[in-house]
Design the sequence.
């Protein structure tokens, strides 16, 4: 693996950048090295059947340093986070954790992330929860917490917002 | 027994039936629920955006639960359970990461010491309450009812062998009610809930295929625990069946609701009116009221 020049993808002319191998969760970088490509992750993958996601390819692209290409591809958003790959891997590589780390890297770089995730983040910053309180309508009847006799939701204090800004400062800074 | 409860965003903001039935059934079993003083997201969706934020959010709720001085923290939502276990594990393993999180928690006068045990709902019912105690409480049995159990990924794909045992524990909890937990293809498959934010149609296809398989194998109803799975299989059942081009109709009910009915609790108190998938017909068929 010392001479990376032989790894240049001749179709896209993409060059590997081994220094970019993910360092977001400690240990991920080391983990990709022990994959022996048995493809148990891909053969059981929930998203393989529908979206042709191939976790073993993602693991090995990270291993070779093609991180730029992965974070800007849409395939990292195809994962259903069902944890089957993590459960099945004989080497305990956990492709799902690598995919999640790639998603986070894409967000840090300001690349496109699905709208729904961004709205969940906004919602958490505003009221602490990932969704807004909704009325549930079943057969034309509206139900909410008051009507069902459920207690009011206790939201976070103002200090929560400061703490969240600290968290994002940690990562970006 | 007094335990802390973390409801989870979806339960608090729209899956009200989950909260209603859990409150009612646990109080019937003599379990007192201690609420957290504040509720914020468990951090699961943030795993796709910022892992430090996800870790902080999970640690924050666990720290609030520790303040309650109870030994156990439960969540009816399997996603929240998985996130807490993930954070617990990561903070135990990585000291420098724990220091970073501790620093931010201090900002809010909180501290997380890793003292609280996080228990899954299935384990709570099977190990802590026990099948014998459930049998004492059960007034009505559902003989002949074929149940398709949906354990949901986050209930059993973590914790190694302990996790896998939850599949058979769930089956046992259904058999206690006198019903049959049947085999159906794709029993352990994903409901699609986690794919919905990024690939909504693929997510609905997964839910649709799951429901279709349960019907093909002759299930009278599908039983689940997690509010995220329930939303996909019950609330979005029509959308899911339209996505795979079929007309599917199968009652989907929370295990807590089914257990409550067998205890003789009125369906309205368990939030049955909130289920969209025709559970009223199922209850008529069960012939208990």
Sequence:
């Amino acid at each position: 693996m010392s001479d990376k020049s032989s790894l240049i993808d001749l179709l896209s002319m993409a060059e590997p950048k081994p220094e970019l191998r993910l360092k977001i969760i400690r240990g991920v970088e080391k983990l990709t090295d022990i994959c022996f490509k048995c493809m148990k992750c891909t053969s059981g993958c929930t998203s393989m059947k529908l979206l042709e996601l191939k976790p073993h390819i993602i693991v090995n692209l990270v291993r070779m340093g093609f991180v730029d290409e992965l974070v800007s591809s849409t395939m990292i958003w195809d994962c259903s986070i069902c944890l089957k790959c993590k459960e099945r891997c004989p080497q305990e590589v956990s492709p799902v954790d690598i995919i999640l780390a790639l998603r986070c890297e894409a967000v840090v770089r300001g690349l496109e992330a699905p709208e729904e995730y961004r709205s969940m983040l906004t919602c958490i910053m505003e009221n602490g929860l990932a969704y807004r309180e909704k009325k549930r309508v079943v057969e034309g009847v509206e139900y909410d917490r008051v009507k069902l006799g459920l207690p009011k939701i206790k939201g976070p204090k103002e200090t929560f917002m400061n703490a969240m800004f600290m968290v994002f400062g940690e990562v970006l800074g | 027994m007094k335990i802390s409860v973390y409801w989870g965003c979806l339960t608090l903001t729209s899956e009200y039936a989950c909260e209603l039935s859990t409150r009612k059934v646990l109080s019937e079993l003599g379990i007192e629920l201690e609420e957290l003083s504040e509720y914020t997201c468990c951090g699961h969706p943030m795993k796709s955006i910022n892992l430090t934020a996800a870790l902080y959010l999970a640690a924050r709720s666990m720290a609030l639960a520790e303040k309650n001085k109870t030994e156990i923290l439960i969540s009816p939502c399997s996603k929240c359970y998985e996130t807490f276990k993930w954070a617990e594990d990561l903070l135990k393993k990585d000291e420098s990461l724990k220091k970073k999180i501790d620093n931010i928690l201090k900002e809010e006068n909180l501290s997380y010491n890793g003292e609280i045990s996080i228990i899954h709902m299935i384990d709570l019912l099977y190990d802590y309450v026990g099948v014998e105690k459930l049998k004492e409480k059960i007034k009505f049995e559902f003989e002949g009812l074929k149940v398709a159990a949906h354990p949901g990924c986050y209930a059993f794909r973590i914790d190694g062998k302990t996790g896998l045992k939850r599949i058979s524990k769930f089956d046992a909890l259904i058999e206690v009610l006198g019903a049959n937990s049947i085999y159906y293809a794709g029993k352990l498959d994903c409901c699609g809930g986690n794919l919905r934010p990024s690939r909504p149609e693929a997510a609905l296809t997964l839910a649709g295929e799951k429901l279709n398989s349960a019907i093909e194998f002759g299930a009278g109803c599908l039983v689940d625990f997690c509010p995220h799975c329930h939303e996909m299989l019950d609330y979005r059942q029509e959308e899911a069946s339209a996505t795979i081009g079929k007309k599917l109709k199968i009652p989907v009910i929370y295990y807590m609701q089914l257990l409550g009915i067998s205890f003789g609790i009125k369906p309205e108190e368990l939030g049955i009116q909130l289920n969209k998938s025709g559970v009223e017909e199922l209850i008529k068929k069960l012939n208990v009221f």
Q: What stands out?
A: Residues 45 and 85 of chain A are 7 Å apart (CA to CA). The first helix of chain A runs from residue 28 to 33.
